[in-house]
C-alpha cells in the first residue's frame, strides 16, 4: 500500500513543517477511506514566520516593474494549463465536485492569470489638468503591502487565484490560508507559483484551522490587508478584527440567490438552468440557486418538469464522468442540510423530492444527499431566508414581476439573481430592480466570468468587487501626485485669477 503523502507549508521559499510537528488529515468526501494527504497543523508561530517572510520579500517585489511581475503570472497560467487534468482530479478527490466542474475551477485560475498578466501593462492611473499653470496632476496605484488571504473550500483553486494573482500583479506579498477541507489544491497552486518563478517569500502558504492560523493572520500588525471569502458569520469576525487596527479588509460572503421564472419563459431552458444552478457543486456555491420564484400561471407545469428531471440526476463519486452531482463536503455540512430539511418540513413546506441522505454500497463511505426540492415555500420561512449550502431548492410563486422581485430582494443577502423571460421589457426592469451584485437573463445564478466584477450587496459583502479591473481597487492604494514646475509657490484654491474666494485643502 502506498504511504500517505505529507504536504508542507511554504514559507520563505521553502517547503517546511509546522513548528507544531503535527498534521491533520484530508479525506475524500465521496469515500472517507480514501486519505488524500496529511497537512501541517500550523500555529500562530508559523503565521509569524510567514508574515516575516512576506515582509522581507515585499520591497524587492514591489520595485519589480509590473510588466515583469505579469510575465511570471503569465507563466503561471501556462503551467496550470499543462497540469489542468491532474489538478482537477486531485480537486475532485479532496472536495467532491464532479470532474467537469473541477476542470472549470482550474480554468478560472488560468483565466485569472492571463487577465492579470495583461493588467501588468495597464493598471491605469489618471492624469488630469492641474488648476494652476506649470503644474502636473496625476494618480497612480501602489501596492498595499503584506496581504492575508483566507479562503473557503468550495472553489479550492479559483478563489485563492482570485486573490493571490491580482495581489501579486499589484506588487503585494501574500500569506494564503486555505480551508482545512481543501488544502491540497492550494499546495498545488502555490507549487505552480514557485515553478513559474515567483521570488522567494512573495507567496507563503500556511495550512491549519481558522482559530490557529486565520485569527493570528488577520490580527497580525504587519498584515496590511485581509481578503476573506467564506461565511457571513466568520466574515463578521474578520471585519471586527480588522477594525481595531484599521486594516483594509475585503469580504465575500453568503448568498440566497433566486431565479425568477415568468409565464412567457422557455420552460425547458429554465429547467436546465435550475438544475445546474441548484445542484451544480451539490448546491455548495455562494451563487447557487436556492430559491426559484415561478409565475403562478406556469407553476404546476414547471414544477412537474423540474421534479422529474431532478429525480433522474445521477449522484455519486465525481471522478466518474457520468456522475452529475457529487457528495457534500463533509459530515458536518450534510448534517446542516438534514437540519434544514427538518426545519422546512416543520415550517409547512411540502417536500416534492429528495430530503434524505443516500445510503447503499455506492454511498455509505461518503456524505451523499438526495437533490431536494420543497414546494409551497413562503418567503418568510427559514429555508427561504437562510443560506443552506447544500442541494436544497425552495419553490415559491408570484403573480407578476413586481411580486417576484419583492420576494427575490427580501433577504439579507444580495449576491446573484436571474430571470427567465422572452420579454425584453420584463428583463430590463428586472436588471434594474434586482438587489444583487450579479444578474443573469435566461441563464442560472451561477457562471461568473473573470473579466466582470464579482461580489454582492447587502450582507454578502462590504462593497468590494473581486475579478475584473475592480479587484485592483482591493489590492492597491491610490497615490495622488502633484508636480509643480513653475519655480514659485503656487497655492491651490487661493492663487487663481478666476476665483474670488476659497479655502485651501491641505
Ligand atoms: P467559513 O467561513 O467557515 O471559512 C472560510 C475560511 O475562514 C476558512 O479558511 C476557515 O478556516 C477560516 N476561518 C474560520 N474561522 C475563522 C476565524 N475565527 N478567524 C479567521 N479565519 C477563520 O466558510 P466555508 O464553510 O469554508 O465556505 C462556505 C461559505 O463561503 C458560504 O457561506 C459561502 O456562501 C461562502 N462563499 C462566498 C463566496 C463569495 O464570493 N461571496 C464564494 C464562495 C463561498
Descriptive key words:
binds nicotinamide-adenine-dinucleotide; 506 residues; 37% helix; 5-stranded parallel sheet; 14 helices; alpha/beta; Aldehyde Dehydrogenase, Chain A, domain 1; Aldehyde Dehydrogenase, Chain A, domain 2; 7-stranded mixed sheet
Biggest sheet, strands in spatial order?
15-16-17-14-13-18-19
From the 3D coordinates, which CATH architecture of the largest domain would you assign?
3-Layer(aba) Sandwich
Number of domains: 2
Please give the radius of gyration in angstroms: 25 Å
Number of helices: 14
Q: What CATH first level of the largest domain would be assigned?
A: Alpha Beta
| Mean residue pLDDT | 97
Q: CATH-wise, what's the superfamily of the largest domain?
A: Aldehyde Dehydrogenase, Chain A, domain 1
Biggest sheet architecture: 7 strands, mixed
The tally of strands reads: 20
The low-confidence parts are none
What is the overall shape? Answer: globular
CATH topology of the largest domain: Aldehyde Dehydrogenase, Chain A, domain 1
Structural class: alpha/beta
Brief summary of the model shown:
With 506 residues, the chain is α/β, with parallel strands linked by helices. 37% of the residues lie in helices and 21% in strands. The protein is globular, with a radius of gyration of 25 Å.
Describe the 3D structure.
By secondary structure, this protein is of the alpha/beta class. The protein folds into two domains: 267 residues, Aldehyde Dehydrogenase, Chain A, domain 1, CATH 3.40.605; 185 residues, Aldehyde Dehydrogenase, Chain A, domain 2. The protein contains 14 helices and 20 strands. The strands form five sheets. A seven-stranded mixed beta sheet has the order 15-16-17-14-13-18-19, with helices on both faces. Strands 10-9-8-11-12 form a five-stranded parallel beta sheet, sandwiched between helices. A three-stranded mixed beta sheet has the order 1-5-4. Helix 1 crosses helix 6, helix 2 runs antiparallel to helix 3 and helix 3 packs parallel to helix 4. The protein is globular and about 80 Å long. The mean pLDDT is 97.
Amino acid at each position: 500500500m502506498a504511504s500517505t503523502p505529507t504536504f508542507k507549508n511554504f514559507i520563505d521559499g521553502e517547503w517546511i513543517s509546522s513548528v507544531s510537528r503535527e498534521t491533520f488529515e484530508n479525506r475524500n468526501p465521496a469515500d472517507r477511506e480514501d486519505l488524500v494527504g496529511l497537512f501541517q497543523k500550523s500555529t500562530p508561530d508559523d503565521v509569524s514566520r510567514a508574515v516575516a517572510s512576506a515582509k522581507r520579500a515585499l520591497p524587492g517585489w514591489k520595485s519589480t516593474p509590473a510588466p515583469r511581475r505579469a510575465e511570471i503570472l503569465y507563466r503561471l497560467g501556462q503551467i496550470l494549463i499543462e497540469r489542468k487534468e491532474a489538478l482537477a482530479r486531485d480537486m475532485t478527490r479532496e472536495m467532491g465536485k464532479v470532474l467537469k466542474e473541477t476542470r472549470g475551477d482550474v480554468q478560472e485560475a488560468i483565466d485569472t492569470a492571463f487577465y492579470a498578466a495583461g493588467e501588468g501593462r495597464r493598471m491605469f492611473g489618471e492624469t488630469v489638468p492641474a488648476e494652476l499653470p506649470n503644474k502636473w496632476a496625476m494618480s497612480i496605484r501602489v501596492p498595499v503591502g503584506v496581504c492575508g488571504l483566507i479562503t473557503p473550500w468550495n472553489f479550492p483553486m479559483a478563489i485563492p487565484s482570485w486573490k493571490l494573482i491580482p495581489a501579486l500583479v499589484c506588487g503585494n506579498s501574500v500569506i494564503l490560508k486555505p480551508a482545512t477541507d481543501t488544502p491540497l489544491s492550494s499546495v498545488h497552486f502555490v507549487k505552480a507559483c514557485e515553478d513559474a518563478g515567483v521570488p522567494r517569500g512573495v507567496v507563503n502558504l500556511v495550512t491549519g484551522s481558522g482559530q490557529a492560523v486565520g485569527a493570528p493572520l488577520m490580527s497580525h500588525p504587519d498584515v496590511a490587508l485581509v481578503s476573506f471569502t467564506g461565511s457571513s458569520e466568520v466574515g463578521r469576525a474578520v471585519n471586527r478584527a480588522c477594525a481595531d487596527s484599521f486594516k483594509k479588509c475585503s469580504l465575500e460572503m453568503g448568498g440566497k440567490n433566486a431565479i425568477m421564472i415568468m409565464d412567457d419563459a422557455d420552460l425547458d431552458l429554465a429547467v436546465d438552468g435550475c438544475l445546474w444552478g441548484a445542484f451544480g457543486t451539490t448546491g455548495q456555491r455562494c451563487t447557487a440557486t436556492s430559491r426559484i420564484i415561478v409565475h403562478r400561471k406556469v407553476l404546476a407545469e414547471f414544477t412537474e418538469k423540474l421534479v422529474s428531471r431532478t429525480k433522474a440526476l445521477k449522484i455519486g463519486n465525481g471522478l466518474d464522468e457520468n456522475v452529475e452531482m457529487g457528495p457534500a463536503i463533509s459530515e458536518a455540512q450534510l448534517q446542516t442540510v438534514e437540519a434544514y430539511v427538518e426545519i422546512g418540513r416543520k415550517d409547512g413546506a411540502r417536500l416534492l423530492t429528495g430530503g434524505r441522505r443516500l445510503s447503499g454500497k455506492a454511498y455509505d463511505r461518503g456524505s451523499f444527499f438526495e437533490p431536494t426540492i420543497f414546494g409551497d415555500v413562503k418567503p418568510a420561512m427559514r429555508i427561504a431566508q437562510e443560506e443552506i449550502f447544500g442541494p436544497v431548492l425552495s419553490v415559491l410563486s408570484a403573480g407578476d414581476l413586481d411580486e417576484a422581485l419583492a420576494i427575490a430582494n427580501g433577504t439579507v443577502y444580495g449576491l446573484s439573481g436571474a430571470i427567465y423571460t422572452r420579454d425584453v421589457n420584463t428583463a430590463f426592469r428586472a436588471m434594474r430592480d434586482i438587489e444583487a451584485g450579479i444578474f443573469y437573463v435566461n441563464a442560472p445564478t451561477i457562471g461568473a466570468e473573470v473579466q466582470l466584477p464579482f461580489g454582492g450587496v447587502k450582507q454578502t459583502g462590504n462593497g468590494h468587487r473581486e475579478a475584473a479591473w475592480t479587484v485592483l481597487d482591493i489590492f492597491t492604494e491610490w497615490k495622488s501626485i502633484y508636480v509643480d514646475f513653475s519655480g514659485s509657490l503656487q497655492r491651490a484654491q487661493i492663487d487663481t485669477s478666476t476665483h474670488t474666494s476659497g479655502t485651501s485643502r491641505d
